[in-house]
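Closing statement on the shikimate-3-phosphate sub-project.
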Amino acid sequence: MILEVRPSQGLRGTVRVPGDKSISHRAALLGALGEGITRIDGFLESEDCLATLRCLSLLGVSIERLAPGSYEVVGRGRQGFQEPLSVLDCGNSGTTMRLLAGILAAKPINAVVTGDVSLCARPMARVIEPLRSMGAEIYGKAQDTRAPLTIIGSRELRGRVHELPIASAQVKSAILLAGLNAKGITVVKEPTQSRNHTEVMLQYLGVPVRIEGLSVTVEGGSIPQGGHIIVPGDISSAAYLMVAGTILPNCDVTLANVGINPTRAGIIEVLRSMGADLAVRSEANDGEPRATIRIRSSGLHGIEIKGDIIPTLIDELPIIAVAAARAQGTTRIGDAAELRVKESDRIAVMARELAALGVDIREQPDGWTIRGGQRISGGRVCGHGDHRIVMALAVLGLGGDEPLYIKGAEVVGVSFPGFAGILRDLGAQIEEREAGS
Ligand code: S3P
């Protein structure tokens, strides 16, 4: 599919972004692990999260769709999972694969976990090694560094202290979920705080979790209790609308029910520091705080973005690069080498596509230097099979100077079904066309 984007202005209106991807995965997985029934509302029905549901169904978990975004998951609790009849296919979803690896390592069944070409190229030693150090039997392609993963689960895992070399919520969560079914206590210490949705949800579902600074502890034998999880809107999806509403002229956009967990909300701080007019009005807080965010057009200026804030906006860096391309002055983004091992090498891919459109962007090992304010040309660009690259380029096209055509746009459904439709509702000129039409 091709996304055809025309320079636009005057985005106006109130919209709700779809449910948070990270929280939706966790709601389904913890519901399945738990005792009793978990009701989920606001579940993100995107390719990634639907892959999690399909894997859980293959593990014998009963999941009923009550209405769009509303599900009931019957926890397997002490009964455990069924051995799957076929390979568990996580599609493009790193969260599904890494969290499932942690869960399955400590269950007495065998499973093979795979994914698409992108996911099978992403690093898996970061979960294989710590799980093995707890006694797990888990193997991967390419000398145990890549998927497909073969997991020979066991009830005999032992808790231990893990010091993570990088801040990764997927790795932290995989270890904590294995720790729930290991003997003794499991501690994860991170170098900087990554998103904490697993810890927050475990506590919400009644599992004791000790959090001291950057260290999280769980005890083996703890089982989540079914509950009602209301998933907030995804700030990572809201980020495209925030940047569009800032860099396009004559905008006044309101986003309702956006999750603003501080371990995720770095984009708000960064856009404000660049000069954006963002008003954040807090709403409910059940452990996952939510807010209504109002955005109006503003002139941006370049800043430096690095250090501890990076994990709180890691998925937003492609769209922040777009904001930087439309800002006056230079933006330097560093400490973000993790971007190279996401759904694509986001540092290389953004540098290549933005440079092709006339942006003054220099690629560094851990980020970019971007001098904003140049004319943005149009033409054809490639989404590189990466949902966040397609959406970032689309917003650049809306704020550019000529029509832009983005190839491979169907991958947007990985995290943000309805992306183009929501932008159109706000007044943007953006159309999805079948390739070749
Ligand atoms: C996620 C964690 C992040 C993020 C990913 C989703 C999660 O990766 O990039 O899109 O749901 O735990 P890390 O594991 O590198 O933190």
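The pocket of shikimate-3-phosphate is lined by residues 22, 95, 168-171, 173, 194-195, 314-315, 338 (CB under 6 Å). With this model delivered, the sub-project is considered complete and its resources will be redirected to Aim 3.
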